[in-house]
Amino acid sequence: MENEKKTAALKETETGGPVRSSVSGFLYQFMENHAPLFWVIFSFGMVLIVYKSFNLAFLNKTPYTWDDAFQHLTLALICILMMREAYQGQFHLGFRRAGFFRGLLLCWPALLFLLINLITSLGAGPVYPESLALEVVRNGSIGLFEEIIVRAILVGHMMHHWKGTPHRVCKAVLWSSVLFGVLHIGNALANPIGTAFQIFYATGIGVVFAAAYLRTKNLWSCILVHGLVDFASNMGNIYVPLQADTEAYMEALYQVPSLLLGQASPETIQMVLGMVTFGIIPLTALCIIVGIFMLRKSKAPEIESLWEEM
């Protein structure tokens, strides 16, 4: 019966209902009737197939990765247009002013990863303005692209699809966070062990971002914190001038003196890096605990009221 209503809604041309093309109509029906399958296909297809294949074909040829930022922004725009077309502008994507500062406060556990990244990425050399500008744009575009996919589209659509069902908030957080973590598996070929840690802590951070988004319905705060965490992990790049020779560029990166570990012995550096690596485990657990606390039972009416509409 429910599917019949959705099909009829597509034909409401005389009564002012949505008028959809055959493509957007098919997309709408698929998203409404096969939502879990859509989440898997969309997330893996967009990140691991479209994004990675585009990277291999066109990008990473030189350190000049302005085209990388352009790719993120282009794919983010495609995702936004897809949702606007499928739901005729009725799907809320979190681009609003209300709740921004509250969202920043709720995202505080993710900032602990920013501090960890600074320990290994903060350099003592001169900062090159063009490299700084590149990293700001590139990491900001990464935060924008991933937050639109995972929080705005996946969490938002999960809350819509499971409306009126028990535990929809818990299911939306669990699904989206696990997907967010697993999507980083694309880095496994370059660094399997590092990728395993990345999947683990990305899942934990995903719980915090999802909780903050559900409590505020504001995507900007998640984008900003996400971009800052990524920027901190790539800060070493701002101490190296851009150059066309990739090998020379990578060699220069290895030569950047660490501000916090520059005077330490190799043994001390290895010990600190080991502590930082395994410190990710309790920090990830903290993110999950804080995220669950943010979604405690007393906050259910507030969340339900905020998500009454798409």
What does this structure look like?
With 310 residues, this protein is an all-alpha fold. The chain has a domain at 96-306. The chain is built from 13 helices and no strands. Helix 7 packs across helix 10 (219-233). The two termini are 22 Å apart. The model is unreliable at 4-16 (pLDDT under 50).
How would you concisely characterize the structure shown here?
This protein has 310 residues and is mainly α.
Structural class: mainly alpha
First CA to last CA: what distance?
A: 22 Å
Instruction: Assign a percent range to the helix content.
Output: over 70%
* Share of β-strand residues: under 5%
Number of strands: 0
The rough form would be described as: globular
Nearest-integer average pLDDT: 84
Number of helices: 13
For the largest beta-sheet, the strand count, sense and barrel status come to: none
Gyration radius (Cα, Å) is: 21 Å
Helices and strands, in order, run as HHHHHHHHHHHHH
- Stretches with pLDDT under 50, minimum 5 residues: 4-16
Q: Keywords, please?
A:
310 residues; mainly alpha; 13 helices; 0% strand; globular
Task: Explain the layout of strands and helices.
Blueprint (H helix, E strand, L loop, with lengths): L1 H8 L12 H12 L1 H24 L7 H21 L13 H7 L1 H14 L7 H33 L6 H15 L9 H25 L2 H15 L12 H9 L11 H29 L5 H7 L4
